[in-house]
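Lab notebook: predicted structure, single chain.

Context: the supervisor wants predicted structures on file for every construct in the current expression panel, including those that have not yet been purified. This is the next one on the list. No modifications to the sequence; it matches the entry in the shared construct table.
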Amino acid sequence: MRVENIPRLERWFDELGGLGPVVFVLGYAVAELCFVPAMPLTVLGGIVFGPVRGTVYVSLGAIIGAALAFLAARYAMRDVVARWALPIRASPASTPRWPSTDGAY
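Prediction complete. Output recorded below exactly as produced.
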């Protein structure tokens, strides 16, 4: 993003009206889930919405993004992580520490 495009982006969020903050928060959460660096998005939130509202919207987006990342890791990626974390021939049931740590989370 270039500095010259910031006024255009501000106008776009203004044209969205009440949906502008919602779009920003959801976009921030999805970007965080996709490993997009948060710093440029955080600065953008402050520029577009001002320091107070921008901080609130960025915080909401970060919390929602972190919750989505946890849910993705816990449910959608559980088998991938289990295969990656365990030895090649060991199954989760045959590893003594796996059931205790699996139940803890």
